[in-house]
Structure formats: C-alpha cells, structure tokens
C-alpha cells in the first residue's frame, strides 16, 4: 500500500507516473533503506525539508544498484504528484541548488515540451557547481547549466530514460514559442565592437610620427646561409643517363680538396713544428762547425808536417824547397 500511487493522480504520458522509472530501478528504490525510513508517509510540505537536506545528485551506484536519495525523492514526487505551482517554486528557488535540480528533473519527466523549454532554459544561466555521484560510487563536480543541458538534449539522465520532446525549431516555426535569446549575445556584440575599433588603427598624425623601421641590409654571412633563388635552382629530377655518368665520375675521380685550405693546414703544421726544429737545427749547425774546424786544423797540421819532410829531403838533394 505504501508504494502505490495516489488515487487522485493523473496519468502522465498515458501511464502511471511511477512507471516513468524502469521497473528494476523502481524495485531497488522500494527495497532501499532511505525509501523505507525517510520517504514513508511524505507529503508535499514535508518533501521540501527532505529536498533541502540533499547534498548531491545522481542515479544508481555500485554493483548492487543502490539508488541515491535524489532518485528516491523523484519517485516519491511521482507517487504523490504535487501541484505544478510547487514544482515551479522548486525551479525558481535560488538559495538551494539541489532543490532546483529536483524540480527541473521532475518537470523534464512529467512536463510538456513547451513547459520544459519555458522553465528549464532560463536555468542555463546558472553556473553554480553541483556534486554528481557516478555509477562507480565516486563523486564528480559538474555545473548546473551542464545538468540542464543534459536534460534538454540527452535521452538518459541519472539512469532514467527521459521522455521525448519536440525540437525547438519546430515549435518556433509553429509560433508556439519565441526564439531563444542567449545571454552571450551582448558579450559577442561588445567583442565585435572592440575588434572594429582595433581594425581602424591609430589616426594619421600618429602614423606619420611613428618611426619607420628600415630593413637591415643582409650581411655576407647571411647571403651564404640563404638558399639560392628559385630561378637558379636546379631541378631535382634528372635523367638516368646523367645519374649513371655522375656515379662513374664519382667512382673514378677522387674528391677534390680546396688548395687554399690545404696550404693553410700545412702552414699551421710548420708553425707548430718550427720552434722545436729551430733549436735542433742551431745545435746541429754549431756541432758541425766545431767538427769542421777540428778536421781543418788536423789537415793543416798534417800538410805542414809533410811539407817539412819534403823540404828536408830536397835540401839534401840540393833542390829548391816547396812553398
């Protein structure tokens, strides 16, 4: 008896309001502890106090499919079916954000497409943070506008299949609803005006006074670094004959080296070796001079001795002496 819908309740979408939630989830809600302890004999007045005590929103969680208190209160609202004015007050409440989420979700399930666009679209300007419990049991921080956008666009929210509603374009063509005016239009207009002012640039007087930055002539190093102009570039595509000739030439002739670089290298080597060699050469020259002077003295002394002997013999024989 406690799980039956109120007798005076009207059918929603052609069925019992509680049937808008799937049977498996509905049976889990009936078996939950929160439903038995907190939702028993609730009225529309007492429901407000329970809604104010909410700390997060969500559907079912864990492997045993346990329902959240938010989902239990939604089923209780479908069971007692409160007046539309109470739901509208839930939506317009700005002090308690989870009370607003509760009224918006109930309006999305039971309301018509016109009521959904009329009461839920203004909530897209609410950017407050709300807690959402995922299927694994952990919590995620989301925003009110994201939750409302999910209700208007997605087919399922909080593990509940949402009834289909007509698209806004069709209702605008039928003139049943006014075209939506976004709160961002004013910001976009301001950005457009600021961009136009930037495009105009400074006045002519400031432009004339502004210094003109001349381009610096490229240095010879930069010229060597730059690639040649496209006119002097050679095409990469070559005939197979040229490629063969080039291969033969490379194989026959060794690569040429720049002569100036070789000369500079030789000079550097000579400079590095020159100080060591100069000392050695000087020592060698001094030694060679000493040796040559000694040999010359020895040779002179021997020659003089021979001349003396020869002159003695010549004197005995009566001949003239040698010079």
UniProtKB/TrEMBL annotation:
Basic residues: which segments have biased composition? 212-260, 287-298
Task: Point to the regions of Basic and acidic residues compositional bias.
Answer: 261-273
Q: Where is this region: Disordered?
A: 185-307
Pfam families referenced in this protein's UniProt entry, alphabetically: PRP38
Which residue windows does the record flag with biased composition (Acidic residues)? 185-202
Q: Which UniProt keywords apply?
A: mRNA processing, mRNA splicing, Nucleus, Spliceosome
Listed GO CC annotations: precatalytic spliceosome
Q: What is the annotated localization of this protein?
A: Nucleus
Instruction: Give GO BP annotations, semicolon-separated.
Output: mRNA splicing, via spliceosome
Record carries keyword Nucleus:
yes
Give the source's domain of life in one word: Eukaryota
User: What the protein does?
Assistant: Required for pre-mRNA splicing.
Question: Record's family?
Answer: Belongs to the PRP38 family.
Name this polypeptide is given: Pre-mRNA-splicing factor 38
Taxonomy-wise, where does this protein's organism fall, top ranks first?
Answer: Eukaryota, Metazoa, Chordata, Tunicata, Ascidiacea
